[in-house]
C-alpha cells in the first residue's frame, strides 16, 4: 500500500525526476524525435533500454504503430507507454471501422493526451505522436509528463534530448525535403547518443508519407552512415 | 394501413405476421402531421427551414424555436411530436459533446447521424418503449466531408440527402427540391428556395393555419472561397440563424411567388 | 445460516480463523497531482476607462528548460471575456479545451441573444478550482479573468485553492511581486480607472512585460495581449435591447521592444576594478 510512487523532486522542488519508476521497472532512458517535411514526417529513436546502468536491451524498437500512418515514439516507463499505445491502437481501429474513415493524426494525439492527463498520477510517459494523412500532411504532437499536448513542427524527447536542443534549433529548417529531414533526425540522434549514457545502439527511423510507412535503420559500427535500408 | 386493429400493433417487440412493426408505422404517421421541415445541401453549406405552425395567437412571435443547435457546426430540425424532438435533440447534443470530450474535435456530421440512427432504432426493439414520433433532419459541415445533410426516421433508418423534406408538406416540398440543381447552388440562393418551398408546402397542406418560417444555415466561416470558388467547400462550418434581412427578403419573394401561383390556380378553378 | 454475504462460502471461523478484512478495504490514501510539471509564468492585467488589457508570454517551461515557446495562455471565452492562466499547462488545457469550451457551447444552445459575461465565467472558474482543491486534486493554476460586465470593466483572479479577489490591477506568479507595484502606480484604486486611458494602460502593461523579462528567469520575450473594450448600459433590459457592445482586440506574437542593455558596457568588475 505504500508502494505508490510520488515522483522524486530534486532540490529546487520543480525539476521532476523523469526516471521515477516503480521498483525494478524497465526504463526507456531515451532519445526520440519526430520532424515534418514537405509531404510527410520522420520519426526516429535510439535502441537502448536500461534497468539502472545495465542495458536490458540494446536493439529495442521504440517506434510504435498505432494506425496505418500514425506512429509514436515512446519514452519513460516501457510498461506504461506500451499499455497506452495498445489502448490508443484499439481506439483508432474502432474509429476507423465505426466512422468509415481513417483517424486524423490529431485524433490519435487527443486519445494519447486523454490517457496521459487523466492518469498522470500513475504514469511516467513522455510520448511524441507523428502521423501523415492526405488532408493535413505530416503532423507532430508532443505530450510531456503532465499530459499537456503541443503541436510542433519537430519534437524531441527523452533524457538524451536535453543535449540536442541547440543542435535542433540551429539545424531545423522549414520545407525540408525527405532526404534532408532524415539527415536532420540522424544528425540530432547521433549527437544525443554520443552525450547521453542512457541512449545508444542503432538509430531506427520510420518515414510516413502518401506511400505509407517505411522503416530505416542506421548502425553505430558504420558511424550511422548508409542509406538506412 | 390495411391491418389496423389486428392486435399486432400494440407492442414494439412483436412483428405482424407479414413482417411489419406497426408502432414504427404509427410513429411515421405522427411525423406526417407535423409542420414541414426541409434541408438543402449546397456547395458551400446547408440550409434548414421549418414551417412552425402557430397554435395560439398568444404565443410570443419568434419563441419556441424548432431548429436546434447540436454543436457549433451542426443544426437539427425536427418534424413530429415536439416533446420527442426535444429529447432527440438533447441526445444529439450529448453525442456531440461526448465526441468532443473523447477526441478533442467536433463530431463529423455523418458520424452524428449514424449515432442518432442507432439511438432511434433502439426504440423500435423493446415493448417498454415506443419509437420516436419524430423525423430529424441533421445538417452540418465538417472538415472531411464538407456540407452534410442527413434525415433520420422513426425506424432508425438514416440516409444522406442533397435535399430532404419531412412533415405534412413533404410531398410538395420534395417535388420542388427535385427541380433544384443540388448541390451546385450556394446557401444564399438556397435560402430563397427554402422560403419559397416552405410557403408552397404550407399553402398545399395547412393553408388555414398560422405559421412562422424559421431558417438556419451551416456554412464555412471563411466565405471568400465559398462565394467565388468552384466545387464543394470543405472545413468546419458554423450553424446560425439566417440573418433577419435575408429571411425577410426571401419571405417577400416567397409571398410574391405564392400570389402568382395562387392566381393561376384560381383561374384554373374558374375555368 | 449467516445472512452476511461476505461470509457465505467461506471456511468456518471456529475452525480456520476469522477472515482477514484488511483485504477487503478498498480505500487507501489516494494521491493526486502534487506538483506542476510543464508550467507557464505570470499573467498581468489592468483596467482602464472603457475596458481591460491582459497579457501573458508564450513560454511553457519544464523546470528551468524553456520547453515550448509558442503556447497561447490567453483564451477568449464567449464574447465578453478573456481568461489568462499561469501554472500547470496540462491543467490549463483541461480548463480551456474541456471545461470552458463545453460551457460556451452549452450556452450557445439557448440561442436567446444572451451570452455569459465576464463575472459569470469568473464565478464558474472559481467554483471549479475550489471544488478540485476540496477533492485534494487541485488544478494547479492561477487565473485572471478580464472582460466586460454590466457596463463596466471586469477583472478578478482565482487560484488553485479557490482563493478569489478582485482589483483594478492584477498579476499572477512573479508578476504579483514585480508588476503589481508598477501597475498600481498608474491605477492605485477603482477611482483611478476612470482617468486611465487605453493607450496609457497598454503602455504600462508593455513596460511590465519588459520588467518581467528582465527579472523572471522563467519568462520569454514573446507574448500575447488582449484588449477588451466595451460600451453600453449598466443594466441589460430583459428584452435584450440596448445590449453592451464588447470588442476584443488581439495582439499575438508581440516581441519585446525598446529594451535597455547598452548600460552593461559601462559595468566593469564587481568592486574596485575599473577596466
UniProtKB/TrEMBL annotation, chain A:
Active site: 30
Entry's EC annotation: 3.4.25.1
Reactions it catalyzes: Cleavage of peptide bonds with very broad specificity
Family matches, as SUPFAM superfamilies: N-terminal nucleophile aminohydrolases (Ntn hydrolases) (SSF56235)
InterPro entries named among the record's database cross-references: Ntn_hydrolases_N, Pept_T1A_subB, Proteasome_sua/b, Proteasome_suB-type
Superkingdom field: Eukaryota
GO biological processes: proteolysis involved in protein catabolic process
PANTHER family: ATP-DEPENDENT PROTEASE SUBUNIT HSLV, METALLOPROTEASE TLDD
Protein name according to UniProt: proteasome endopeptidase complex
UniProtKB/TrEMBL annotation, chain B:
Gene3D superfamilies documented for this protein: Glutamine Phosphoribosylpyrophosphate, subunit 1, domain 1
Domain Proteasome alpha-type subunits: 8-30
Coiled-coil stretches noted in the UniProt entry, renumbered to this chain: none
Annotated localization: Cytoplasm; Nucleus
Pfam families with a match to the protein in the record: Proteasome, Proteasome_A_N
Database matches in CDD domains: proteasome_alpha_type_3
InterPro entries linked: Ntn_hydrolases_N, Proteasome_alpha, Proteasome_alpha-type, Proteasome_asu_N, Proteasome_sua/b
Keywords: Cytoplasm, Hydrolase, Nucleus, Proteasome
One annotated GO molecular function: hydrolase activity
Membrane-crossing segments per the record: none
Family recorded in the similarity comment: Belongs to the peptidase T1A family.
Protein name: Proteasome subunit alpha type
From TrEMBL, chain C:
Highest taxon listed in the record's lineage: Eukaryota
Gene Ontology biological process terms in this record: proteolysis involved in protein catabolic process
Nucleus keyword on record: yes
Gene3D superfamilies in alphabetical order: Glutamine Phosphoribosylpyrophosphate, subunit 1, domain 1
Name of a matching Pfam family: Proteasome
Localization terms from the record: Cytoplasm; Nucleus
Nucleus found in the keyword field: yes
Signal peptide range: none
Entry keyword set: Cytoplasm, Nucleus, Proteasome
GO cellular component, one term: cytoplasm
Xref: PANTHER family: METALLOPROTEASE TLDD, PROTEASOME SUBUNIT BETA
Family to which this protein belongs: Belongs to the peptidase T1B family.
Function: Non-catalytic component of the proteasome.
Designated name of the protein: Proteasome subunit beta
Amino acid at each position: 500500500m505504500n508502494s505508490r510512487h510520488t515522483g522524486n523532486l530534486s532540490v529546487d522542488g520543480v525539476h521532476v525526476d523523469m526516471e521515477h519508476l516503480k521498483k525494478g521497472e524497465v526504463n526507456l532512458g531515451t532519445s526520440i524525435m519526430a520532424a515534418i517535411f514537405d509531404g510527410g514526417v520522420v520519426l526516429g529513436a535510439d535502441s537502448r533500454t536500461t534497468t539502472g546502468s545495465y542495458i536490458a536491451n540494446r536493439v529495442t524498437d521504440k517506434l510504435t504503430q498505432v494506425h496505418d500512418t500514425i506512429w509514436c515514439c515512446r519514452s519513460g516507463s516501457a510498461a506504461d507507454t506500451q499499455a497506452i499505445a495498445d489502448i490508443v491502437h484499439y481506439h483508432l481501429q474502432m474509429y476507423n471501422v465505426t466512422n468509415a474513415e481513417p483517424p486524423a493524426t490529431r485524433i490519435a494525439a487527443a486519445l494519447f493526451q486523454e490517457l496521459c492527463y487523466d492518469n498522470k498520477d500513475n504514469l511516467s510517459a513522455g510520448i511524441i505522436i507523428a502521423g501523415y494523412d492526405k488532408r493535413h500532411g505530416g503532423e507532430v504532437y508532443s505530450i510531456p509528463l503532465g499530459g499537456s499536448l503541443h503541436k510542433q513542427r519537430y519534437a524531441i524527447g527523452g533524457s538524451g534530448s536535453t543535449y540536442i536542443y541547440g543542435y535542433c534549433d540551429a539545424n531545423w529548417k522549414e520545407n525540408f525535403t525527405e532526404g534532408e529531414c532524415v539527415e536532420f533526425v540522424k544528425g540530432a540522434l547521433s549527437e544525443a547518443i554520443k552525450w547521453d549514457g542512457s541512449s545508444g545502439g542503432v538509430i531506427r527511423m520510420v518515414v510516413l508519407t502518401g506511400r505509407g510507412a517505411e522503416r530505416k535503420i542506421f548502425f553505430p559500427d558504420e558511424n550511422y552512415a548508409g542509406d538506412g535500408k | 394501413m390495411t391491418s389496423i386493429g389486428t392486435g399486432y400493433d400494440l407492442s414494439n417487440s412483436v412483428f405482424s405476421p407479414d413482417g411489419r412493426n406497426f408502432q414504427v408505422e404509427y410513429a411515421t404517421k405522427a411525423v406526417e402531421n407535423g409542420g414541414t421541415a426541409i434541408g438543402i445541401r449546397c456547395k458551400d453549406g446547408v440550409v434548414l427551414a421549418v414551417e412552425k405552425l402557430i397554435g395560439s395567437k398568444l404565443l410570443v412571435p419568434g419563441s419556441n424555436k424548432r431548429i436546434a443547435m447540436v454543436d457549433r457546426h451542426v443544426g437539427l430540425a425536427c418534424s413530429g411530436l415536439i416533446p420527442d424532438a426535444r429529447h432527440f435533440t438533447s441526445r444529439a447534443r450529448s453525442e456531440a459533446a461526448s465526441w468532443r470530450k473523447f477526441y478533442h474535435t467536433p463530431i463529423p456530421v455523418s458520424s452524428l447521424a449514424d449515432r442518432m440512427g442507432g439511438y432511434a432504432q433502439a426504440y423500435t426493439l423493446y415493448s417498454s418503449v415506443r419509437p420516436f414520433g419524430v423525423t430529424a433532419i441533421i445538417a452540418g459541415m465538417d472538415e472531411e466531408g464538407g456540407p452534410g445533410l442527413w434525415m433520420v426516421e422513426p425506424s432508425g433508418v438514416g440516409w444522406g440527402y442533397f435535399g430532404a423534406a419531412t412533415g405534412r408538406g413533404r410531398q410538395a416540398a420534395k417535388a420542388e427540391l427535385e427541380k433544384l440543381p443540388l448541390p451546385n447552388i450556394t446557401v444564399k440562393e438556397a435560402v430563397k428556395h427554402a422560403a419559397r418551398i416552405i410557403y408552397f408546402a404550407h399553402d398545399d397542406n395547412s393553408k388555414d393555419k398560422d405559421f412562422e418560417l424559421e431558417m438556419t444555415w451551416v456554412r464555412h466561416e471563411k466565405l471568400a472561397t465559398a462565394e467565388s470558388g468552384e466545387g464543394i467547400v470543405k472545413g468546419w462550418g458554423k450553424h446560425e440563424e439566417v440573418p433577419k434581412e435575408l429571411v425577410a427578403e426571401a419571405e417577400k419573394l416567397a409571398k410574391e411567388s405564392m400570389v402568382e401561383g395562387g392566381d393561376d390556380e384560381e383561374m384554373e378553378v374558374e375555368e | 445460516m449467516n445472512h452476511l454475504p461476505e461470509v457465505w462460502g467461506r471456511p468456518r471461523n471456529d475452525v480456520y480463523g476469522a477472515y482477514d478484512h484488511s483485504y477487503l478495504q478498498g480505500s487507501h490514501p489516494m494521491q493526486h497531482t502534487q506538483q506542476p510539471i510543464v508550467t507557464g509564468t505570470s499573467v498581468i492585467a489592468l483596467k482602464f476607462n472603457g475596458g481591460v488589457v491582459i497579457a501573458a508570454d508564450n513560454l511553457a517551461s519544464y523546470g528551468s528548460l524553456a520547453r515550448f515557446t509558442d503556447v497561447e495562455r490567453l483564451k477568449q471565452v464567449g464574447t465578453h471575456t478573456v481568461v489568462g492562466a499561469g501554472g500547470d499547462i496540462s491543467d490549463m488545457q483541461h480548463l480551456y479545451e474541456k471545461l470552458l469550451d463545453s460551457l460556451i457551447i452549452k450556452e450557445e444552445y439557448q440561442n436567446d441573444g444572451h451570452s455569459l459575461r465576464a463575472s459569470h465565467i469568473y464565478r464558474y472558474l472559481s467554483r471549479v478550482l475550489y471544488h478540485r482543491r476540496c477533492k485534494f486534486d487541485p488544478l494547479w493554476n492561477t487565473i485572471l479573468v478580464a472582460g466586460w460586465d454590466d457596463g463596466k470593466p471586469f477583472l478578478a483572479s482565482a487560484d488553485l485553492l479557490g482563493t478569489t479577489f478582485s482589483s483594478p490591477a492584477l498579476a499572477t506568479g512573479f508578476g504579483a511581486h514585480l508588476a503589481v507595484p508598477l501597475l498600481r502606480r498608474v491605477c492605485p484604486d477603482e477611482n483611478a480607472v476612470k482617468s486611465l486611458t487605453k493607450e496609457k494602460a497598454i503602455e504600462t502593461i508593455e513596460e511590465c512585460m519588459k520588467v518581467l523579462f528582465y527579472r523572471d528567469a522563467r519568462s520569454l520575450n514573446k507574448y500575447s495581449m488582449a484588449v477588451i473594450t466595451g460600451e453600453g448600459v449598466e443594466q441589460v433590459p430583459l428584452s435584450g435591447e440596448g445590449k453592451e457592445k464588447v470588442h476584443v482586440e488581439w495582439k499575438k506574437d508581440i516581441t519585446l521592444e525598446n529594451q535597455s542593455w547598452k548600460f552593461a558596457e559601462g559595468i566593469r568588475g564587481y568592486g574596485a576594478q575599473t577596466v
